[in-house]
C-alpha cells in the first residue's frame, strides 16, 4: 500500500539537463521523475521507505532562457581526499581554479511552478516501528518547518527549490491548458543493474505529465 503527498515546487530558474546534449546544458521541458524523487528525499528519506512520483502538474508556461556560467572542469580525486582524511592535511585539496575554470552556455527554464503527486511504500528494511503514518507525519512536519537533509534544488545546486506541502484531499491549482509530446525522458538510474539509465516516453496532457509505475513496460533502457 502506498501513502501519497502533494507537494508544490517552484523557483526562478531550473535546469534538468538532457543527457544527449553534453557539451552545453539544455534542460528538459519539465522535471524528471528522478529529480522530483531527489527533492522528496532531501526532505525525508530512510531505508524503510521508497518514493514514487505519479503526476507532475505544470502550473506556469514553459519558458527558456540562455545564460553563461563559470564551471570547474575537474574534481579532486577520491584517493587525494582519502589521503587528506588520514593525514589531517588540507594542502592537496585545492584546485587550480584559473586553469580548470570553463565558461559554458546553458538553456534553462524560467519561473517554474509545479504540483507533484507522489507516494511512498515501505521497503523490506522497514522495522516494527516504521509505520506509514509515522513517516507521513514526519514528512509533512519537516516540509512545514523548512527542514531538510540538504537544500532541495531544481536540477543544479545554485537553483534552490521552494517547496510547500498541499492538502492531499484538496484539488491542486489549475495546470496550464497545453498538450505536447515531450519525447523520451530520463526516468531513473537502475543502480541494481550496472547503473543503467531508464527512459520513458513523456507526454503532457492539459498541463499534466503522468509518470508510469516502476514496473511498467513503458520504462525502457
What would CATH call the class? Alpha Beta
Shape label: globular
Structural class of the secondary structure composition? alpha+beta
Any guess at the CATH architecture? 2-Layer Sandwich
- Written as H for each helix and E for each strand, in order along the chain, the element string is EEHEEHHEHEEEE
Span of the ends, CA to CA: 27 Å
Low-confidence region ranges: none
Query: What is the average per-residue confidence, as pLDDT, rounded to a whole number?
Result: 89
Total domain units:
1
GO biological process, one term: defense response to virus
EC number: 3.1.-.-
Family: Belongs to the CRISPR-associated protein Cas5 family. Subtype I-C/Dvulg subfamily.
Protein name: pre-crRNA processing endonuclease
What would you note in describing this structure?
With 221 residues, this protein is of the alpha+beta class. The protein has one domain (3-69, 103-220): Alpha-Beta Plaits. It is built from four helices and nine strands, in the order E-E-H-E-E-H-H-E-H-E-E-E-E. Strands 1, 2, 3, 4, 5, 6, 7, 8 and 9 form a nine-stranded mixed sheet that branches. A hairpin with a 5-residue loop joins strand 7 (180-190) and strand 8 (196-205). The longest helix is centred in the middle third of the chain and has 14 residues, at 132-145. The relative contact order is 0.27. The model has no long low-confidence stretch (mean pLDDT 89).
Amino acid at each position: 500500500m502506498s501513502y501519497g503527498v502533494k507537494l508544490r515546487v517552484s523557483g526562478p530558474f531550473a535546469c534538468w539537463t538532457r543527457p544527449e546534449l553534453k557539451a552545453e546544458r539544455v534542460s528538459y521541458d519539465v522535471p524528471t521523475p528522478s529529480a522530483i524523487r531527489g527533492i522528496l528525499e532531501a526532505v525525508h528519506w530512510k531505508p524503510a521507505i521508497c518514493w514514487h512520483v505519479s503526476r507532475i502538474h505544470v502550473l506556469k508556461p514553459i519558458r527558456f532562457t540562455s545564460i553563461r556560467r563559470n564551471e570547474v572542469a575537474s574534481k579532486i580525486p577520491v584517493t587525494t581526499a582519502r589521503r587528506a582524511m588520514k593525514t589531517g592535511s588540507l594542502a592537496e585539496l585545492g584546485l587550480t581554479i584559473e586553469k580548470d575554470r570553463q565558461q559554458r552556455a546553458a538553456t534553462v527554464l524560467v519561473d517554474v511552478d509545479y504540483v507533484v503527486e507522489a507516494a511512498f511504500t515501505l521497503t523490506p528494511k522497514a522495522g516494527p516501528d516504521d509505520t506509514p503514518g509515522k513517516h507521513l507525519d514526519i514528512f509533512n512536519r519537516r516540509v512545514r518547518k523548512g527542514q531538510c537533509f540538504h537544500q532541495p534544488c531544481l536540477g543544479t545546486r545554485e537553483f534552490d527549490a521552494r517547496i510547500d506541502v498541499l492538502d492531499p484531499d484538496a484539488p491542486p491549482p489549475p495546470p496550464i491548458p497545453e498538450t505536447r509530446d515531450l519525447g523520451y525522458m530520463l526516468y531513473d538510474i537502475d543502480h541494481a543493474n550496472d547503473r543503467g539509465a531508464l527512459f520513458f516516453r513523456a507526454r503532457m496532457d492539459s498541463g499534466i505529465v503522468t509518470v508510469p509505475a516502476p514496473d511498467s513496460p513503458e520504462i525502457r533502457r
